[in-house]
Known about the structure:
The chain is built from one helix and twelve strands; from the N terminus they run αββββββββββββ. By secondary structure, the protein is mostly beta strands. The protein has one domain. The radius of gyration is 15 Å and the shape is globular. It starts with a helix and ends in a 7-residue tail after the last strand.
Amino acid sequence: MSRLVCAASLALLLSGCGDNLLGGSLSEIFPLDVSRVEVYRNEEALQITYYFNRNVFLDVVVRVSVYIADQTIKPDARLDLAGEYAPGHPRTVVAHAPGGEPVRLLPRVHKGDLHIISGGDPGVVTRGDFSMVFENEGGDIGFGRTLTGGFSAQTVDAGFGELP
């Protein structure tokens, strides 16, 4: 079965639940175990961070940051994760940062989408899922791999606050 078919199958499975979990062929590079998920949002970005607690270390399994200033975030919204929002600026950046090790960036998203099932605003629980395929070059790890995820967490306001 191709990677894209596997990713699409898992994304379909995840769309029916609010479990905080990850899947995809990226698991061949590093474990995709999850202890908790945090969702942050401000006017410019939506960020979903998957953590795994390894006793002394707290791993950032993956952090998905999506530029949303030109998008509408509401229940049943679908966001394209590929491409750029401005020349030289990718719409989506995915990072991996295991405790005690350097941050590693994944390649740009070749194809993918994020589905907001419910919520989306700060102060409410946001549920959703995503699937993506990474480009074959660029980044530090994960070339050509897939990543799928489901999330459900209270959205934290990551606003910039009042200017001095």
